[in-house]
Write a structure and sequence with these properties.
With 105 residues, the protein is mainly beta. It is built from no helices and ten strands. The chain is 0% helix and 46% strand.
């Protein structure tokens, strides 16, 4: 089970986009995540008439290291750390380290 998953709200804690918040669009392995509106790069694309794509400069989100983002805790309005806990019914869940509240439950 990963600490940061697709759909989680995160805040960037290091790098040029420090302080920005966004939702995780994708996870790439255990080391990188793609966050909406964060680490935007410009990509030069060639036109492709077969797929009806115009050429030009496209802005897109690039992957960012998972160690440079922290999960956003909406209760405390701060970045937080994640822990794992096994419930009585045997389910393994993630919880916020600061207040012990379970994520998504």
């Amino acid at each position: 089970m990963r600490k940061i998953k697709k759909g989680d709200s995160v805040v960037v804690i290091a790098g040029r986009d420090k302080g920005k918040r966004g939702d995780v669009k994708a996870t790439l392995g255990d080391t990188h995540v793609v966050v909406a509106g964060v680490n935007q790069v410009k990509k030069h694309t060639r036109p492709n008439p077969m797929q009806n794509q115009p050429g030009g400069i496209v802005t897109k989100e690039a992957p960012i290291a998972a160690s440079n983002v922290a999960i956003w805790n909406p209760v405390t309005q701060k970045a937080d750390r994640i822990g794992f806990r096994t419930l009585q019914d045997g389910r393994k869940v993630r919880f916020y380290k600061s207040n012990g509240e379970v994520l998504g439950a």
